[in-house]
Every structure is written in C-alpha cells, then in structure tokens.
Design brief:
Bound molecules: adenosine-5'-diphosphate
CATH class: Alpha Beta
Order of helices and strands: EHEHEHEHEHH
Oligomer: single chain
Helix content: 40-55%
Length: about 160
C-alpha cells in the first residue's frame, strides 16, 4: 500500500488543499494529512481547531487519515512507514521555497521522496493567508472554503477583532 503524507499548517483548510488531497489519491492508496503546529507562522486557529476542520472536510473522501506531527517532517514520514511527502505547487512563487524544502528533506532522509501536485487552475491563486484577508474584510468565502470552515473562520475573526 503506497502512503503519502501531506503536511501543512492548514490555517484553515481551503478547497486548494482538498483538491491536492483528492489528486493525491490517484497516485497513492492512502493519504495522511499531517497538520503541523507551526507556531512560527502564528496561526489564527489553534492546532486542535485546524485538525478538527481538516477532519470535517475529508470525512467523505476515502482513504484519508488526519493527524498532527511535531519535529522533523522526515522523521515523522520514516517512522510512519509512508513512502513520500506530498506538496502542492501553485504559481511559480511556491517553487523556490518548495524546492529548497524538498532538497533539505532529501539530505536528511535520502529515501523519502517529495511529490509535487498542481491544483486545478481555479485554486492556483488560493492560499489560507489570502482567504483570512478576504474574511477580515467581509468578503464571500463559500467559493474557497467548506461551508462550516467558512463559518468558523468568520466567527474566529470576529472573536479576535479589536
Ligand atoms: P505550509 O505552512 O506547510 O506551507 P500550508 O497549509 O500553507 O502549509 O500548505 C500546505 C501545502 O499545501 C503546501 O505544499 C502548499 O503549497 C499547498 N497548498 C496550499 N494552498 C494550495 C492551493 N490553493 N493549491 C495547491 N496547493 C496548495
């Protein structure tokens, strides 16, 4: 059984992430979505909320497991018995950072491959950061997020508003 680990901050999960998960299942038998705490990114949602939203969104997609990990991604991948890291590539701007990460990870664990998948064009401009900005300014979210995720994002933004 080929298993791919899809790591990220998922703050919050968007249709772009879901698109990558669905595409991954054409390549892998099972996908493990691994949510990173990533305090350095100062996530809007805490880890438990991000995990909960990912679980909610993927519940109807078969062969997806949701978990969290701390520490080195390659350590997690090796210990979990997975075969590859999955990352999404959007516009050219993702490339440099992703390329660097993939090569560092290869140095750290030479047997762990990174597989890049491109999302549908309609999601290629979408990021959690942009969506949080749209939400802060009261924009419509339903094209980009699961309905319940959109509701929780609006609620969270209201609760942190000064
Ligand atoms: P990270 O902090 O690790 O970049 P993200 O949650 O922002 O975490 O993204 C996780 C992965 O999903 C990354 O590989 C990112 O490039 C990819 N990704 C995010 N949004 C999209 C999207 N709209 N289309 C395709 N891939 C995406």
């Amino acid at each position: 059984m080929k298993i791919g680990v899809y790591p990220g901050t998922f703050d919050p999960i968007t249709h772009g992430h879901t698109d990558i998960i669905t595409r991954s299942l054409r390549v892998f038998d099972k996908v493990v979505v691994a949510v990173a705490p990533n305090p350095a990114k100062h996530p809007l949602f805490d880890l438990a909320d991000r995990l909960d939203m990912v679980k909610l969104v993927v519940q109807d997609i078969g062969q997806v497991e949701v978990t969290c990990f701390d520490g080195l991604l390659v350590d997690y991948v090796e210990h979990s018995g997975a075969h590859a890291i999955i990352r999404g590539l959007r516009a050219i701007s993702d490339f440099e950072h992703e390329f660097q990460m993939a090569l560092i990870n290869r140095k750290l664990a030479r047997d762990v491959e990174t597989v890049f998948l491109m999302p549908s064009e309609e999601y290629s401009y979408l990021s959690s950061t942009i969506i949080k900005d749209v939400a802060k300014h009261g924009g419509a979210l339903t094209e980009f997020l699961h309905l319940e995720v959109a509701r929780r994002l609006q609620e969270r933004i209201r609760s942190v508003a000064p």
